[in-house]
Amino acid sequence: MLNKYYQELKPVIKSLPTNPGIYRFYDKDGKIIYVGKAKNLKNRVSSYFNKESGFSGKLKLLVRKIADIDHIVVDTELDALLLENNLIKKYQPRYNVHLKDDKTFPWICIKNEPFPRIFPTRHIVKDGSQYFGPYASVRMMNTLLDLIRQLYQLRTCKLKLTEEYILKKKLKVCLEHHIGNCKGPCEGLQTREDYENTIVEIKEIIKGNIYSVIQQLKELMKQYAEGLEFEKAQVVKEKIELIERYQSKSTVVNPRIENVDVFSIITDDESGYVNFIKVVNGAIIQSHTVELKKKLDETPEELLTLAILQLRERFESNATEVLIPFPLPTELPGVFFTIPKRGDKKHLLELSERNCKYYKLEKAKQLELVDPERHTRRIMACMMKDLRMKEEPRHIECFDNSNIQGDYPVAAMVCFKNGKPEKKEYRHFNIKTVEGSNDFASMEEIVYRRYKRLLDEEKPLPQLIVIDGGKGQLSSALKSLDRLGLRGKVSIIGIAKKLEEIYYPEDSLPLYLDKKSETLKIIQYLRDEAHRFGITHHRKRMEKGTVKSVLTEIDGIGYSYAQKLLLKFKSVKNIKKASLEELQGAIGKVKGHVVFNFFRKKNIV
After folding, report:
1. In this predicted model, what pLDDT tens digit does every residue of 569-601 receive, in sequence order?
2. How far apart are CA 99 and CA 65, in angstroms?
3. pTM of the predicted protein model
4. Which CATH number fits domain 548-601: 1.10.10.10, 1.10.3720.10, 3.30.930.10, 1.10.150.20?
5. CA nearest 133: which of 201, 196, 207, 205?
6. What is the DSSP secondary-structure string of 485-526?
């Protein structure tokens, strides 16, 4: 039995009810290490002790540490989900998933005071003030605050503007009033009602309800115009234009999408990345992405459910429609989930998924810059697992043949170390023992030559050999390894180009790797790099073979001089007709004289 406390826990487990609820696992020190929810408490808790062989390493470690169990019964599965969420936030158990934020995000605060100030803050004080956010982008928040300052004349001072102080005339207007940034409520130059109306409009703008604010301002502008107050109407008109310019900078989706939350998720072996987008009146007003570190191999559905609960609470969302990529096991009261298949809502979900991918890539790049070896270890561990190897493929070599109808057969070997090209270790091979076009025999020759040399020179062998080709090329390479006594000492695979099939020795069924996996990407990179390197060498041999004609038979005229002559005169016939001066101008006095005499002495065309 995996858990040494099982005999003591057995009566507790057997007596658990079959109702919905939450359960808590404690370690030997009485500390909560995991909180979970269940539709059926007895079945769920029992499962931890009944399926040990199928558990992951993390889950086995959790079960090993369980010393005590308690539970809370609730009415519904939803109640269990909400209670689980609250307990996780309160106790932060080691084996539960937590939303991972690297910093405290800013909020916009409307202070609870007479003539409220509006300012950014990273600290929430429970004094009755209103907070809007948080904002993942400080730039976005500052743009919104700049718009508010341009539209409205608000006080920025910290004076206590009670009616008593204002009536006693103890306060004086400051420079902000004189330059037009404040209407001077401190001297009673602005009524509290007028100021409060301004705050109501600002709240609507912050919430994203820009359309309703524009409509109200247009109505006010019309009233001023009808009352012949054209200066005031002009001021309101300028405000409307400013709001519309700000609105045009927002990502507009569809005005008919009024109040919707969008959630998407992508996962890997270690984490889940969840993006949240808030849409109000057809415009995206907020977007935020978080990372959730997996603790016990949680499913995407479990991670997304947790994120939806916490992010909607954090952003104080009251949207009744939530767009998601797949069905979730739990319903939320007053909320209906939509899985869009087409149209603007589908585009929103795709945009959210792209944000997840970009966030993941950025995190990976940052991690690689800060700790490149950790990134390498992760890639190597992934390759070892995907390719069913016993050790990490830190050193990989890939072979490829190149020939055209048997002419100038060559081969190439490229070397990758720690998942990256090691170009100084690249090698070209001219096929020596094979006549005509025979890929299998050529592969056998170059693999034998490569590893015979490494053995003779006592150099380290790779952990993995990749053969560009299917079962035939792989079998040929294996013959060479057999002759050298390396079979079983070095892992070897073949990759077929059409369907990216991975072949193993003496296994007729190929392995298909995930098209998006990093393992397949590295193998494809190896294969493509070997092909490129081989083709380059093959072209050079073809060029030399083409030039190697009458010209290279002349004593003292090599490949480079022959190339210069052909580049200048275009054909051997023209070279024969050229004057001495023309030949010397192309390749120098001495070499030009040699070529001139050769064609004068021999009747060669």
Report:
1. 877 788 888 888 888 888 888 888 888 888 877
2. 24
3. 0.50
4. 1.10.150.20
5. 207
6. T-BTTBEEEEEETTTTEEEETTEEEEEE--TT-HHHHHHHHH
